[in-house]
Design brief:
2 copies of one chain form a homodimer. Chain A has a single domain, classed as Orthogonal Bundle (Arc Repressor Mutant, subunit A), CATH 1.10.10. The first copy, chain A, has about 140 residues and is an alpha+beta fold. In chain A, the strands form 2 sheets. A 3-stranded antiparallel sheet of chain A has the order 1-3-2. The structure holds a DNA duplex (30 and 30 nucleotides).
Chain lengths: ~140, ~140
DNA sequence: TTAGATAATGCAATGGAAGTGCATTATCCT
DNA sequence: AGGATAATGCACTTCCATTGCATTATCTAA
């Protein structure tokens, strides 16, 4: 826990009890999770607090949001080397339509692309949906 | 208009007056638009009807949904050769954070990618957000 | 061409996620 | 320890997505 505290500190986020818990939950879930998921795993906390906690985490490069096509934003921890200025950990995301789990395919990075002259890239979201290995075998 | 009618017919969608109007609106907008946008441009129609019309269009490969990071799903017409089974017109999408417009970059196709063994790909969403040319120059 | 089956539409209402304002409480720094 | 600043919790609000049901339109087959 001491460790998490210093991670938050390094990213300029006050390590409050609530935030440590949210971080904990995010690190324990191997999948990307929604605000509601966090809320369900932390019954004591108010939804607004969680909402703002995630917002802060996002702004400071601690988590990245994932639009998986369900309309519900999911979140997952960023790599240690991400920061407020830039999310450097750009990888594919996969959403399974059967088990509804959304996972980071951290081993699969987003390919280099070109966009039209004059456009500025700030964020990239590359999500593949279909059936995951687990559900495909079942 | 006769033309649109046959397009719908070819995709197994009954060409009702309402649907022709929705198609018309989609084809007149060069950007991807939301359900609410359509609703505003067609005051006479009930939102539910538009909702189900878009749903039908989506299922039959007439429009494709775009998750641009705003949490509001946008829609744009598919290429003629898309159908209910497969959306073959896979291109990048760009969302401008300044003017909030979401556009299809039909000239920029989604690069070939590999996903883990055992996974099945059904849909792909590749959206870049930032600042578009128009806003960058302004 | 018309009857009957089937599909589309409109209305009313619900659910759920996202977001805001404000008062209270905790945290950090000196 | 004290005071500025930030975090939290509560009460709302807003907006998009979605459903059930009654009504109306459309298509097909006799």
């Amino acid at each position: 826990m001491k460790e998490v505290e210093s991670i938050l500190h390094d990213k300029n986020v006050r390590p409050t009890a609530m935030r440590l818990l949210v971080y904990q939950i995010l690190s324990e879930n191997k999948n990307a999770i929604s605000l509601t998921d966090i809320e369900n795993q932390l019954k004591t906390a108010d939804r607004t607090t969680l909402y703002r906690t995630i917002k802060t985490f996002e702004e400071q490069g601690i988590v990245h949001p994932i639009e998986d096509g369900t309309g519900i934003t999911k979140y997952a921890l960023c790599a240690a080397y991400c920061n407020a200025d830039k999310h450097k950990d750009l990888h594919l995301h996969f959403h399974c339509k059967v088990c509804e789990e959304t996972t980071c395919l951290t081993e699969y990075s987003i390919p280099q692309i070109s966009i039209p002259e004059g456009y500025i890239t700030e964020d990239i979201n590359f999500t593949v949906s279909g059936v995951c290995k687990k559900c495909n075998q079942g």
